[in-house]
């Protein structure tokens, strides 16, 4: 017996980007707590829709194909952001929402253009080192019943700090001599 064909609606990238851009504007600090919460929930919903679509679109690319690697890098980062707690202060919640918004925009770019390549550099290299270490480390994978990480890993802490620094201080552009 065959499964009935289910027709999925195309993603509305325009709506997704508009929501993300609303959070990334300069007046994001002026958002009310209710607006911020609503936008956060919308962005989380957008990510849960776009991630599987990109995963299904990429299998025909080779494992070392740069656009595929970049797309899965962005998916991994988006999943980390989905699992992260927003923080207690207003500015921490807004920063969390802005990180979700940046993931939405990056994944919309991948969905729209399969040859899309994210910027490379120290940030990507530092993030990749974290991704290679943490899944295989027993301390990094130790969680409590609520799914919160309770293990401590000095290597993961160091790698995360390197990643944070790479994001804050991108390498200066070099000029050919």
General description of the model:
The protein has seven helices and no strands. It is mostly helical and 177 residues long. It has two domains: 108 residues; 51 residues, no CATH class. Helix 2 packs parallel to helix 4.
**β-strand amount:** under 5%
Low-confidence sequence ranges: 173-177
| SSE pattern, N- to C-terminal | HHHHHHH
Radius of gyration: 18 Å
How would you briefly describe this protein structure?
The protein has 177 residues and is mainly α.
Key terms for this structure?
7 helices; single chain; mainly alpha; 0% strand
Question: In terms of topology, how is this protein built?
Answer:
Elements: H1 13-24, H2 33-57, H3 66-83, H4 90-112, H5 122-133, H6 138-141, H7 154-168
